[in-house]
Design a protein that fits this description.
Oligomer: single chain
Number of helices: 9
Radius of gyration: 18 Å
Distance between the termini: 14 Å
Structural class: alpha+beta
Strand content: 5-15%
Shape: globular
Strand order of the largest sheet: 1-8
Order of helices and strands: HHEHHEEEEEHHEHHHE
């Protein structure tokens, strides 16, 4: 599901530019729209569709995935991290020079914590960069890895959560780590699966078994994903 990036950019520019300059910048603020329709599958079917493969972390470096870049809309002056924060705010922050955010409120769904200071939030890669490398991204171009690391084309790919919960997760997969909030489990399993399917990434047997176990307790949960360009 595509974030409302155009709306975010419009709000940012309206706050930071004079009216005439804002109007002139409007064409540059139009984000590309994917023509590929999202696919929706019951969670058990979606997990079953994940390809199986042995994972290999040989050669992984976090720097192989450039982030954060200038985001979906370079004209807004915000990088990917800030654009995700703006898209996920439940109370909109004030935007200062250099896209500095003050005020606002976010809900970290991993641990059900309300956050009013953006600096206390991390932007988590739903499927960590190391995990992506293990399961297919090692063979990608650097440009595709950058696209993955800054992916706002599907809301599940990047999520604003408390720094504590994100750093507890680190680069672990669902066989090793799950959100501390029991209410987050079905959403987390669905979003992990959606990200893997979007980018054509494999899973090993331990991950697939854990995801199938999650799916068994999440009847009625759908997985929505759009294949990455």
């Amino acid at each position: 599901m595509k974030r409302s990036a155009v709306t975010t950019a419009a709000l940012v520019l309206a706050l930071s530019l004079p009216t005439a300059a804002y109007a002139a910048a409007q064409p540059a603020a139009s984000a590309p729209v994917s023509a590929v329709a999202p696919q929706v599958l019951p969670i058990g079917v979606a997990v079953g569709a994940l390809p199986l493969a042995v994972e290999d972390r040989t050669g992984y470096q976090r720097t192989s995935f450039r982030h954060w870049n200038s985001g979906d809309i370079p004209a807004d002056g915000c990088n990917t991290r800030a654009e995700v924060l703006l898209a996920e705010a439940v109370e909109y922050p004030s935007i200062g020079p250099g896209c500095a955010l003050t005020g606002g409120m976010w809900i970290s769904y991993y641990d059900e914590v309300s956050v009013t200071d953006a600096s206390r939030l991390d932007i988590d890669h739903m499927v960590p960069l190391a995990e992506a490398w293990d399961s297919g991204a090692a063979a990608w171009t650097s440009a595709r890895r950058e696209a993955y690391a800054n992916d706002q084309g599907q809301q599940a790919s990047l999520v604003a959560v408390t720094a504590r919960s994100n750093r507890s997760k680190a680069d672990q997969d669902p066989a090793e780590w799950l959100p501390p909030s029991a209410d987050a489990l079905c959403r987390y399993g669905a979003e992990w699966t959606a990200t893997k399917l979007r980018w054509g990434l494999a899973v090993d047997e331990a991950k697939k078994d854990r995801l199938l176990g999650i799916a068994a307790g999440c009847g009625g949960t759908d997985v929505e994903f759009t294949p990455a360009p």
